[in-house]
Amino acid sequence: MNKNNKIIIALIIGSLFAVLLLLSAFMAILGVIGDNNTFSSSPFGDTVAVIPLQGEIAYGQSSILGGEIVTPDTIIGEIRQAEADSDVSAILLDVNSPGGSPVASEEIMTAVKECKKPVVVWISDVGASGAYLTASAADKIVASPTSMVGSIGVLLDVTDLSGLYQKIGVNKYAIKGGEFKDMGADYRNLTPEEQQMMQDMVNQDYDYFITLVAQNRNLDKNYVSTIAEGKIYTGTQAKDIKLIDDTGGKQHALDLAAELGGIKGQYKVITITPPTTLEGIVNSLSSNAAYSLGRGIGSLMQEGSIQYVLR
After folding, report:
1. Coil, helix or strand for 190?
2. Which of 97, 126, 144, 201 has the fewest CB atoms below 10 angstroms from its CB?
3. For strand 148-150 and strand 232-234, is the pairing parallel, antiparallel, or unpaired?
4. Please, are residues 199 and 113 in contact by the beta-carbon 8 Å criterion?
5. Cα dihedral sign for 309, 243, 233, 134?
């Protein structure tokens, strides 16, 4: 073979190799090869995203200010993140919470209900009140047999420190515009009219709570009323009365989430957690500052003289 023929053959082989490389790159981009799980039976990927919901559900507070706090913005953002991830086929909401703010709990519940991917809730120690409201919107609920579940009720906690103030010689009062502006203040007790006003508020929210649970769990409202009343149940008892779907550990809940997500065989697990940035802490502190502006029942509820929670 002469020199020219060798050069021609080398050029042909080199060209074919280059074409194969380009074809491989093109196929990888399209997701035909590589790690894009194109051949998975799931319409998405082979991953279950775990979102922890652990602590009291509330607005505008940071755990650095005392206690574990879960904000709706955080959980909703993490649900949206999982929805946008093409590798994620299902979500596991890892719940350990006594509840908290009625509005914040309902916001998270709505996000769970509207999620386009299957959502399974696993209740470890506690999934009560507002946390249970959030869980009730999931496709399936799994709880540890010894967990505490339920506590479907509304609590409006008012503190009267007038006797203590008198004992220590403190004369605390307010100059107000509006008869009920200082309703629930800790320096006096509620009047009968004020007590009835607050009771009406609680009754309305309690009925709404029961309605949401009945709708989310496909149960009769009258039936839910009989098992609500603020009662707490073990996971085993909660399954018997249809507040949850099954009992078991976290692995069981993950397997169920993968099944609902259409994942066949082995699957991956990722945990989505909020970023701990200085900006996030500053925003949280700013929210607290904003909540402290103004007086009246709203600020009293923030300060703890009145606590209005699903717990």
Report:
1. coil
2. 201
3. antiparallel
4. no
5. negative
Tell me how many degrees the CA angle 52-69-212 measures, rounded to the nearest 5.
70
Quick one: which of 67, 137, 129, 142 has its CA closest to 108? 137
Residues with catalytic function: 129, 181
Round to the nearest angstrom and report the end-to-end CA distance of the chain: 89
CA 271 to chain centre: 14
CB under 8 Å to 32, separation ≥6 — which residues? 38
pTM for the full predicted model: 0.73
Alpha-carbon gap, residue 185 to 197, rounded angstroms: 15
10-63 pLDDT per residue, tens: 555 556 555 555 555 444 433 333 333 333 345 668 999 999 999 999 987 544
CA distance 237 to 163: 43
Sign of CA dihedral 213, 215, 217, 221: positive
Domain boundaries, the chain: 1-34, 47-152+228-309
CATH class of 47-152+228-309: alpha beta
Q: Are 200 and 206 in contact (CB under 8 A)?
A: no
**Angle at CA of residue 242, ends 310 and 218, nearest 5°:** 80
Distance between CA atoms of residues 190 and 204, nearest Å: 19
